[in-house]
Every structure is written in structure tokens, then in C-alpha cells.
């Protein structure tokens, strides 16, 4: 008989340490805990659940304390007619309450914010193609090496250019080396496959003219103003441009007077075939 108080204390401590504390006779404690463990497993040990009787026989007050330390209070009304039915019903209801408490609040921000979307890499192009120019008194041909990049949501393109060209009117040999660059402004169409805009390209132009035994080298300024049409594939780049090439100062060919003169304005047409990178 002397051991009875000690055993009572041990039993009370074990009950207090249990994750489920039932203070009602409406359900069977053993069946309720067994149903809970069948549903949530060992996760039950991270919770503290206290069930007290409510105003009526089948009404219960539930107090839940989750792993986050937050305490929530809910009221349940059991519909089972037998103690066993109410025990299974309570176990199912407690499982739903635990799931609800573990879920993030509606409309709230997730615990871990998603990583920011990566910035789209800058894409550009590099190509090679022919160029022809025609003026009132002179026609020329050549080849250009050009490259550019699409910036500001494809609205702006800085372009670099290096070109070789020349002509052979009558008994004169005319050779040009140009280098420079400029800007093109426009917009993408058809899912960024087509780019349409206008361009201005400024070049330093080194002109070498040979007539029989006479050689002349001059420096001039060349400014190309026109329209640009481009096709951008996954790796293939196609470009076409046309406009006016302004060359200053205009130079007559020695020995021919005004019959052969380069500048001040010539129509230009250029094509480029290349690759897309980025």
C-alpha cells in the first residue's frame, strides 16, 4: 500500500509526457493514440495534444502545440455512436488539424523565397558578307566583317565594322580599307526571330588609288545611314542593310576630271551571314 502514491506519481508523469492527453471519457485513449500513430507515425512525438470535454457529451475542445511552439485551439463535434467509432473519428480529426497547422497560411509568403530568375544572357552576332555601292560616276564592291549585340530588350545594337572594297574604272585601280562602327535602333518581331530597324555607321576610310605609275593615298570619312533587316536563328544569323553612304570630301580620280568621282553620296547594299552567340 505504501507504493501506491509512488506508482500514481509515475503514472501521472508518464501521462503528462505523452504527446496525447485525453481528459474525456467520450473516446478510448488507446484506440485514439493508435489511430493517430497509424496516420502520422513518429511525427506525433513532436506535438502536444490535449483534449478536454466540451459543453455537450460529443463536443470536445482540442489544444494543439506543434513543433514550431505555436498553440492552437479548436472545437470538435463527434458524430460516432459508440466509443470506438468516436475514437477513430477523433484520431482522423486530430490528423487533419495537425496537417492544417503545419501548412503555410493562405496568401502568405513561403518560408523559403524562390531564387530570383536568372538574367537573360546578352546575345550577339558575328558575320561576313558582300557589299556593293553605286554612285552617279562610280560603282564599287567589297566585303565586310561585322559584329553586334542586342541590348535593352533588343531595341539597341552597337555594331563594329571592318571592310575592304574597291573598283577598277577604266585603267584605274581603287582600293579602300574602312573601319569603325555605330548604332542600330529597332525592335524584334515574330518571337524575336526577325529584327527590323535603322542604323548609322561611321567609318574612317583609307583610299588608295593607282593609275599607271601614279599612286595616291587619302583619308576620308564615310557615314552609312539606312535600314537593317536581320534574321536570328538558334545559331544562324542573316542580315541585310541598305541606305546611303556619305563620303567626305568627295575625290575625283586624277586624270579623269569629273567623269570618275567617289562621293559625296552612294547607294549601298550589304549582306551578312554569320553565327549567333550568347
Sum this structure up briefly:
The chain has 278 residues and is of the alpha+beta class.
Overview of the molecule:
Residues 100-124 are annotated as: Disordered. Keywords: Signal. There is one protein chain. The chain has 278 residues and is α+β, with helices and mostly antiparallel strands. Helix content is 17%, strand content 52%. It has helices at residues 4-17, 29-40, 83-102; strands at 20-22, 48-53, 59-65, 71-77, 123-134, 139-150, 156-167, 172-189, 194-211, 214-232, 236-248, 251-252, 261-262, 265-277. The strands form three sheets. An eight-stranded antiparallel barrel has the order 5-6-7-8-9-10-11-14. The chain has a four-stranded mixed β-sheet with strand order 1-2-3-4, with helices on one face. Strands 12-13 form a two-stranded antiparallel sheet. A hairpin with a 4-residue loop joins strand 5 and strand 6. Helix 2 runs parallel beside helix 3 (83-102). The longest helix is centred in the N-terminal third of the chain and has 20 residues, at 83-102. The radius of gyration is 43 Å and the shape is rod-shaped. The model is unreliable at 7-17 (pLDDT under 50).
